[in-house]
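Here is the promised in-class demo. Please do not try to memorize the tokens; focus on the logic of going from shape to residues.
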């Protein structure tokens, strides 16, 4: 009976003939791709239809519940990274916060509860975003689709696949040179137009493969570059909604603490290289050395004009109007009655970046009685999140700074009568400043050995045993530069006025889709800001003037986490030709030891001290996968397993971050247990025609030790003394959560060149009852759907792809729930085959210019519009050439 590993190998051999030459890189490795010496007939296939047939074959022949995408499919979708291709798979959803797929969720679980493996191994990951916590979820912005040959999405586990996922495991595979014809080479060039910045950016990739005449040694290399000008317009709600008392009427009403008219701009420079050397002197031995590096330059800036309606309504609101659900719909803010009620943040993040490296050595030995597979390697990642932060505030009790607040479906601030916004003098002053450099690191060393034996014990035909060791270090360092003595010893209360730091230009053209005002405000001159703060003297004993504390270690944000994992497993493959029943059964035993180190302030020592907290746990994880080939067309499936997902590094740290101004803060919990779940799948697949399929799968998961965010009052020791924090957020293990759902999919190709691929997933998750109220799983959308239509003939192909995801829970706040509103996308692609070697194409993303919206659900109160972001449309034109 054909196994999945043979189907994958066949696909990888044939993929090199496909029409999309932008899919570069290197063939499948790991246990499923062993047996490179088997004589398999090469199948020459081309086009969308052929790749979809390969995907079906992989799914049909798998023992587990698996979906697959080949390189042709990724290349033919209008998708620029692997995440955007994966969102077409049933049960998979992604985030597109900056207009590009980054995080992947499977079956209603958060991205941090899923795993991404490259050739069966972990890929280290980090972040470039200042406000992003270190997570176990892989950031797909690091991985262009050009470097990947295929992707397999395991929704049920097997004992020989790494544990660590509640939702599912994505295994990305690269190519090997000995599976390709010597001299195979390809080149892809492309240009991208981004609508909001109105910029064209280049990208390209190249691949070449060589092997000697004997076919015993080969080298494959691939390079990728992608530049992208990113612009995002945001109408933001800061601090969510709270109840404020209006100054004029004394009514209580829901009002956001702050609003933001935000302009985010970024220059992304992605560079990738993939190298593969393979040596196979005979049929018994095979060795592959694989190196991959990907780097993302992510320098950016964020300018945010911030009316603060909470303060304004409370102290200087006039003509206040409150609707029947207790929401303030309008008010005039009298600046003469209010202190701080308008701010402007100018943030520059030069040098922000992240990179990932993988170095892996894989060897296979066929000893006759047994086959031995070994793999050792190291993966590292570093993220740099830099900040030059400047904050302007209005002069207190200034009758020039008046504005109008409205909330007719969405909160907004109008400064229509405030000419100073585009021609400032001293209405706003600069009194907030710091510089920050955060370095995030992630590194894992791994070593494994697998041994498999062919057996003849009734239906059991193969036994596989193995051991794996992983040693992972994750950490974060931070330094800050900040000023002292402002407003002390006769010094001025601020660094200067807006007029002092104005460039003479304005930020304009915002909110074409978000409906927020103002649309223009003054643009600070960064050279003037740099000149002023670089000229400040160093702070030292005896210095009373305004001075700078440069590159100070910021201990509350520094932590280190070490995690050691040891795993043993045994798995048996079985097949009964008489009944058509096949599958695998196994068990994986895993031990996890963690050491979490962080800094806390000690009153006894009067300084920060470094503390370590150790924890350990072990798990027995059985798994069973059954497939019943009822006849030539129908496959029935059943699966059962226990799985775990470990807490994120940011959840395990004992460090805390405080905002005393709002009496809030957040911290970790090094004593957390992992998520533990028991899961079951029951499915049926009908392969009713060549390249056609209809399938449905029921699934359920009982998730124990669910990790939720608890918000409570807490006393925290700090250099300023013991502070009472009213809203301290910390992760805690809670009660169980039940998640169940249904996946359906349909694929059919008509004889006239047209075809359709569609799927729908329904998930339902219960709320967990905690002391601080009910909570639910983040990232779970009740409804997800994809529909793609395509046409293809010998000269031409086209595809239109629609994706839908219903709202999902993001975070719990002190007075309600923050959710992401439903998301849709419509993407298109068209290709023309000029010759057998040359293909030209055009693609478009987000054709309907959908925005990304958050909504806020007040506990026992109204549902209110929160933040909204516009990323704009993107268009691509390019060509592929195969030599």
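The designed amino acids, position by position:
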């Amino acid at each position: 009976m054909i196994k999945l590993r043979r189907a994958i190998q066949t696909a990888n051999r044939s993929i090199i003939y496909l029409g999309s030459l932008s899919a570069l890189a290197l063939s499948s490795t790991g246990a499923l791709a062993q047996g490179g010496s088997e004589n398999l007939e090469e199948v020459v296939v081309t086009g969308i239809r052929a790749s979809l047939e390969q995907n079906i074959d992989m799914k049909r022949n798998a023992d587990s519940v698996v979906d697959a995408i080949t390189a042709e499919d990724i290349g033919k979708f209008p998708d620029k990274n692997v995440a955007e291709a994966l969102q077409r798979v049933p049960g998979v959803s992604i985030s597109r916060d900056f207009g590009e797929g980054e995080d992947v969720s499977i079956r209603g679980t958060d991205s941090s509860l899923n795993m991404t493996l490259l050739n069966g191994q972990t890929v280290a990951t980090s972040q470039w975003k200042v406000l992003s916590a270190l997570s176990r979820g892989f950031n797909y912005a690091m991985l262009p689709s050009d470097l990947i040959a295929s992707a397999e999405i395991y929704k049920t586990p097997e004992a020989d696949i790494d544990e660590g996922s509640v939702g599912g495991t994505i295994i990305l595979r690269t190519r090997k040179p000995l599976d390709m014809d010597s001299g195979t080479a390809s080149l892809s060039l492309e240009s991208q137009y981004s609508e909001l910045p109105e910029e064209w950016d280049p990208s390209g990739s190249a691949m070449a493969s060589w092997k000697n005449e004997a076919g015993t040694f080969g080298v494959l290399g691939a390079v990728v570059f992608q530049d992208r000008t990113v612009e995002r317009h945001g109408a933001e709600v800061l601090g969510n909604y709270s109840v404020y008392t209006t100054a004029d009427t004394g009514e209580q009403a829901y009002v956001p603490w702050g609003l933001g008219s935000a302009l985010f701009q970024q220059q992304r420079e992605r560079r990738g290289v993939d190298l593969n050397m393979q040596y196979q002197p005979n049929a018994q031995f095979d060795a592959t050395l694989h190196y991959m590096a990907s780097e993302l330059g992510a320098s950016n800036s964020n300018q945010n004009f911030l009316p603060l309606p909470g303060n304004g309504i409370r102290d200087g609101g006039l003509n206040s109007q409150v609707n029947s659900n207790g929401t303030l719909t309008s008010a005039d803010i009298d600046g003469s009655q209010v202190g701080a009620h308008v701010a402007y943040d100018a943030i520059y993040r030069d040098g922000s970046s992240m990179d990932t490296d993988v170095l892996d050595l894989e060897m296979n030995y066929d000893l006759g009685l047994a086959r031995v597979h070994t793999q050792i390697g190291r993966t590292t990642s570093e993220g740099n999140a830099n900040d030059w932060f400047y904050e302007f505030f209005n002069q207190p009790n200034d009758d020039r700074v008046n504005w109008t607040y409205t909330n007719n479906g969405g909160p907004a601030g109008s400064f229509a009568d405030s000419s100073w916004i585009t021609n400032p003098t001293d209405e706003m002053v600069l009194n907030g400043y710091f510089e920050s450099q955060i370095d995030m690191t992630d590194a894992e060393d791994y070593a494994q050995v697998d041994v498999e034996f062919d057996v003849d014990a009734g239906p059991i035909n193969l036994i596989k045993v193995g051991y794996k060791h992983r040693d992972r270090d994750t950490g974060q360092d931070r330094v800050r530069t900040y000023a002292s003595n402002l407003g002390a010893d006769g010094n001025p209360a601020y660094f200067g006025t807006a007029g002092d730091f104005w460039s003479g230009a304005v930020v304009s053209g915002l909110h074409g889709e978000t409906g927020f005002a103002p649309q223009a405000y003054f643009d600070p001159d960064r050279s003037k800001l740099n000149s002023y703060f670089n000229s400040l003297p160093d702070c030292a004993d005896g210095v009373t003037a305004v001075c700078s504390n440069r590159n100070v270690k910021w201990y509350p944000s520094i932590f280190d986490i070490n995690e050691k994992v040891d795993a043993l497993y045994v798995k048996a493959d079985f097949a009964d030709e008489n009944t058509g029943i096949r599958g695998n059964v196994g068990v994986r035993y895993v031990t996890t030891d963690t050491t979490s180190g962080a800094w806390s302030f000690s009153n006894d020592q009067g300084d920060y001290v470094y503390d370590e907290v150790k924890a350990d746990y072990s798990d027995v994880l059985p798994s069973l996968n059954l497939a019943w080939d009822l006849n030539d067309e129908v496959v029935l499936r059943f699966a059962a397993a226990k799985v775990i997902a470990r807490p994120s590094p940011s959840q395990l740290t004992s460090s805390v971050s405080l905002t005393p101004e709002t009496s809030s803060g957040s911290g970790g919990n090094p004593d957390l247990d992992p998520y533990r779940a028991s899961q079951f799948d029951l499915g049926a697949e009908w392969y009713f025609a060549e390249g056609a399929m209809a399938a449905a799968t029921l699934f359920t998961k009982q998730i124990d030790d669910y990790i939720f965010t608890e918000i409570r009052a807490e006393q925290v020791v700090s250099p300023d003394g013991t502070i009472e924090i009213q809203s301290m957020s910390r992760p805690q293990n809670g009660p169980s959560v039940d998640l169940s759902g249904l996946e359906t999919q349909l694929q059919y190709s008509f004889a006239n060149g047209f075809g359709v691929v569609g799927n729908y997933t329904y998930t339902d998750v219960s709320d967990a009852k905690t002391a601080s109220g009910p909570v639910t799983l983040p990232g779970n959308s009740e409804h997800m759907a994809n529909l793609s239509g395509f046409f293809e003939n010998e000269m031409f192909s086209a595809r239109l792809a629609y994706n839908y995801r219903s709202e999902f829970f993001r975070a719990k706040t002190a007075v309600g729930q923050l959710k992401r509103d439903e998301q849709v996308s419509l993407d298109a692609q068209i290709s023309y085959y000029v010759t057998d070697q040359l293909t030209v194409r055009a693609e478009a993303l987000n054709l309907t210019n959908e925005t990304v919206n958050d909504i806020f659900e007040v506990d026992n109160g109204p549902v209110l519009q929160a933040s909204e972001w516009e990323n704009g449309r993107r268009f691509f034109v390019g060509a592929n050439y195969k030599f």
